[in-house]
């Protein structure tokens, strides 16, 4: 496997990010842990883009909080089985870019260590979670645009339905990575 197809561990110490992998907890929309162990992984090109996003956030006195990154295809199936809605969950035949190691779910943290108000919670599968949902307060719109600007400048793109989701452009051309049994992300 070449470096650009290698999953890299993301940690607080190595990447200057906060990590709260909610799928290793019951604090996700399924209400139960999906991962037995919380390991944050990204494919090398996504990891490089994350480093750039960290630098950009730090340049304005902020940092990043990661909710999810690489997701084994078996975990994607758990999510699809719970909520089979392609607006929010990638269909199994298509595969999620999380399962390619090129997608990341995250938010911004201010200089006091508090997440910025994004108007909805992470993984809140509602219309108000759309990036450009009308009717949200100005400060929420500003916070979402700030995250969007940082992530786009770092080389990521977004999907319309989730303010927290970013991925590398062209990710669909990459294969899904099945790291569920041999790797550190073991399923419940």
UniProtKB/TrEMBL annotation:
Binds 1 zinc ion per subunit. GO terms for biological process: cell wall organization; proteolysis. It is an enzyme of class 3 (hydrolase). It catalyses: D-alanyl-D-alanine + H2O = 2 D-alanine. The record marks 71 as: Transition state stabilizer. One of its GO terms (molecular function) is metallopeptidase activity. CDD domains: D-Ala-D-Ala_dipeptidase_Aad. Keywords: Cell wall biogenesis/degradation, Dipeptidase, Hydrolase, Metal-binding, Metalloprotease, Protease, Zinc. Its cofactor is Zn(2+). Zn(2+) binds at residues 98, 105, 165. Its EC number is 3.4.13.22. Catalyzes hydrolysis of the D-alanyl-D-alanine dipeptide. Belongs to the peptidase M15D family. This is D-alanyl-D-alanine dipeptidase. The gene is ddpX.
């Amino acid at each position: 496997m070449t470096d650009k197809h290698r999953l890299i561990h993301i940690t607080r110490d190595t990447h200057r990010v906060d990590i709260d992998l909610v799928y290793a907890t019951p604090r996700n929309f399924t209400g139960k842990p999906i991962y037995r162990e919380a390991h944050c992984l990204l494919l090398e090109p996504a990891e490089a883009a994350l480093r750039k996003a960290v630098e950009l956030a730090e340049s304005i006195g902020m940092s990043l909080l990661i909710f999810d990154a690489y997701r084994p295809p078996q975990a994607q199936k758990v999510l699809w089985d719970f909520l089979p809605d392609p607006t929010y969950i990638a269909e199994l035949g298509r595969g999620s870019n999380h399962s390619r190691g090129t997608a990341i779910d995250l938010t911004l943290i201010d200089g006091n260590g508090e997440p910025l108000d994004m108007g909805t919670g992470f993984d809140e599968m509602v219309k108000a979670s759309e990036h450009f949902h009308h009717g949200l307060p100005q400060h929420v719109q500003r916070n979402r645009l700030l995250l969007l600007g940082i992530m786009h400048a770092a080389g990521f793109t977004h999907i319309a339905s989730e303010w927290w989701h970013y991925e590398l452009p062209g990710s669909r051309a990459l294969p899904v990575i099945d790291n569920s049994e041999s790797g550190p992300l073991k399923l419940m």
